[in-house]
Amino acid sequence: PSEEEAVQTPPCLELKRLCETMSSRGLKEYMVRHLSNIDRLREQLPNALKLSPNPARLVLDCLEEHVQGSHIVHRKKASLLVLECFLLMMTQEPEGGEGVVEIEQRLKKEAKKAALAWRKRLISQGGLQKASEMDARGLLLFVACFEIPNALLNRDFKDLVLSGRGISGVLRRSSAFMEKIPKVIEWRVKENVVEAVDLVYTFGVEGRFNPQALLISFLQKSEETLLNKIKGVAQAINVRAAKKNYSFALKSVSRCLARHKIDSWKLLPDWKIDVKIMRLAKEIDELDKHIGQEELAEVIKNIRDQKMAQKRKIDETESSGSFSNKEMKPSNPNPWPPQQQKVVNHVDNYNSTLLEGGGTTGLIYGYSVSPSALREPVAGSIRENVVGSLTGPVGGVVVMGVSGAGKSVLGGSSAEVHGGTLVDGTPGQIGSHTGQALLDRLASHS
Asked: This protein's superkingdom (predicted)?
């Protein structure tokens, strides 16, 4: 009808006419035009559907487009509203002693096939847990109105409910749906207690399942798991992983209760969930600082082991006598200029000792690592903080600081590397050095 005719014809009368004539297309178009007044449609459509010769057939015909996966949002909203009003119609108290007409078995079978086709489409699009809110709500309403197929699993219900929140009040009107939900909750308690409690609150079955008892049991097990994992564990990385898992468990409980507007302090007064979450966050931050130091120590140990293995191999080769003295001599016995030979001899003396600096100071590839360098906190993974060895005839290890600058520690003093330039780290001296200047410093040390 034109806008003028629509104004003259009350919407309720038009709805009655469309339902009486079984005009599924006309009903769908009417719903689309009046979506801006959803509350009025909810009031009028259930009564109008009762006037239809076959309400179930009319609703099924309206939903064909949605089952196949319509991408037009307002048409999907109209389909959902038709389903919702149909469920309201079936669960309303009969007027004048007249009961609601039952759905024919033939239509129930057709509805089951449509529900399974709907489910198959959602699975092909990434799974029911990733279904859009309207698709999840639509399928839940669909099976609540008609009949729940046996092929619809407990996991399917859980995924659909979590994806399509907000219609639990309408779904509670379906006796078939409310018979299914407790079975889903019992299954979910074994898999994920917090999600099971979420379903308990969503469908108001606290009388059958005690949320407080379920959550207390879950929290106790989570705490016991934490204590067992960190008992006798020395490595900070393992302790951090255990505390992160415990913190995640506490946060899941807090989010679930907040979603249903339940005060955790009243329901679980002895657990102080929010306080524990904040304390764990601080402890995890402290552990992050130590983990970098542990990784650095592990790399230093690996370097030491490799150097010792290499030295043993050289010693075995020399002792075997398989090479002559002539073969053992380099082609150029003195590659260094005379003025630098003294420095090279000095470095060779350092290379003869490996990590034997005493206490916390060690030598790595002929360079001494000061205790302050080893104690310095290292952020991130060790691969980002320790980089290979310096190039050139003289080996060395570069220890990367947080800022990304490398530190090459030489003979007890340190030199920082910025973009390939060595910067003296000796207190009181700041400046860049070329290779010759560094060699002069080595000469002065020796």
From this structure: Eukaryota
Residue 392: strand, helix, or coil: coil
Both tokens of residue 214? 């379920």
Largest CA distance in the chain: 118
Spatial CA neighbour of 111 closest among 122, 102, 103: 103
Q: Are 140 and 167 in contact (CB under 8 A)?
A: yes
Residue type for position 180: K
Tell me the pLDDT of the chain (446 aa) as tens digits.
Answer: 443 443 344 447 889 999 999 999 999 999 999 999 898 898 889 889 988 999 999 999 988 877 777 678 888 899 899 999 999 888 875 544 444 567 889 999 999 999 999 999 999 999 998 988 989 999 999 999 998 898 899 999 999 998 888 888 899 999 889 999 999 999 999 999 999 999 999 999 999 999 999 999 999 999 999 999 888 876 778 888 999 999 999 999 999 999 999 999 999 999 999 999 999 999 998 888 777 666 666 777 788 888 888 888 887 777 765 544 545 445 555 544 554 444 444 444 444 443 344 444 344 434 444 444 444 444 444 434 443 433 343 444 343 443 344 444 444 444 444 444 344 444 444 343 444 554 455 455 54
Chain position carrying tokens 């149909």: 86
Q: Cα–Cα distance between 87 and 173 in angstroms, integer?
A: 7
Asked if residues 122 and 68 have their Cβ atoms less than 8 Å apart, the reply is no
Closest to 58 (Cα-Cα) out of 115, 17, 12: 17
φ, ψ of residue 336 in degrees (nearest 5): -90, 150
- Buried/exposed code over 277-312 (b: 16+ C-beta within 10 A; e: otherwise): beebeeeeeebeebbbbbbbeebbeebeeebeeeee
CA gap 332, 21 in Å, rounded? 106
Phi and psi torsions of 296, nearest 5°: -65, -45
**Pair 215, 239: CB distance under 8 Å:** no
- Tallying the residues shown for the chain, one arrives at 446
The reported pTM is 0.61
